[in-house]
Here is the input.
Amino acid sequence: MTESADTTPRDPDAVRERAREALLGARERTALLTECVTDGELTSQVSPLMSPLVWDLAHIGNQEEQWLLRAVAGQGAMRPEIDPLYDAFEHPRAERPSLPLLAPAEARAYAAEVRGRALDVLDAAPVHGSPLHDAGFAFGMIAQHEQQHDETMLITHQLRTGPAVLTAPAPRPATAFTGPHEVLVPGGAFTMGTSAEPWALDNERPAHRRTVPPFFLDTVPVTNAAYQRFVEDGGYDDPRWWEPRGWEHIRAHGIYAPLYWRREGGVWLRRSFGVTEPVVPDEPVLHVGWFEADAYARWAGRRLPTEAEWEKAARFDPATGRSARYPWGDADPGPDHANLGQRHLRPAPAGSYPAGESFLGVRQLIGDVWEWTASGFEPYPGFTAFPYREYSEVFFGGDYKVLRGGSFAVGPVACRGTFRNWDHPVRRQIFSGFRTARDAAPDRGGPREGVR
Here is the structure.
């Protein structure tokens, strides 16, 4: 295997400090997302696709209690009667508002008490000796879980129809990207997945060899301007471009543009966190489902990359033949590498973050928008469910499509070159975009002029 070396600290104090920072950073964001609205808004449901924010808040605390206090520390249950209320598999999102959930003040107090006890556990817990303890895995898993729910809560904020309650600075302006429209990714074998990343989740494991033919990949994600050309060329009215289920879906639901877009007086507008504004041409397109991404790619004479192709473009270093943790190398992401962690409330312009460019010259593979791939969500060879089947195993198969790379809403702890996300092809409320690919041989020609 030629996988990147594990650069995570192993000294027990350093492991505990890393876990503490990850937990505190996630909780700071959770507070931001839940304290900016009234108690009434915390308990209301803005869409049947999403939970009330107060459910997410208490669920975060309940998962932390179950894994850090009960599983790691061996403590008894604090409030065993609420476990079923916050079991995501027992109660679908649409019915959660009807449950006897903890009130906002109770939910905050519960999550805070759990966190206080968990930090005490962290001070004394072993950081080796079992898979749950090694390198602080359980603490890293819980920090990632909270950041994932923070992203879910941010999606709920975007679905709100009231005035803006969240603010963040805009990404730095970027000079118009003038690099090549696409990059050649060499064919051959590479190491996919990981066996070395200590906080990697079960579906990222184990590292294994995968071979892909040579292909071309968009240098940057597809932009609003490029997608607008698809819309205005009648892309949503032409069944040639659509997978049959996708065509049926957009017809049934009257979909004619990305979610939150509308045309007014000859101008495309979008709603973003309570603010209506013109669609920004050079930003990566956002809030499109897999069916839309696939249709655009066909219209452009291209296709979506497979998951293996995406990961090779993101991790493979042709000079050494090894797979790095991130496109830029093994260092943890910093503000110059990628747009992550809700630092901004929108994608950065296409071509931003040159310091985050991959070894092959592809930009913005991490952060900004989740990128749809052509692949279904399946286990890697040698997969073992850990520490519970419901994280990944129960989702394998079906119609789930894999997304890669994270978005501006993803916490850095929950995003890396091996991280896998998945969702149904119809999902558009998520912070999803895409980039396209084409086979390198036989030559099918480049993309349509001006398509990016």
Summary: The first strand starts at residue 182 and ends at 185. The radius of gyration is 22 Å. The chain has nine helices and twelve strands.
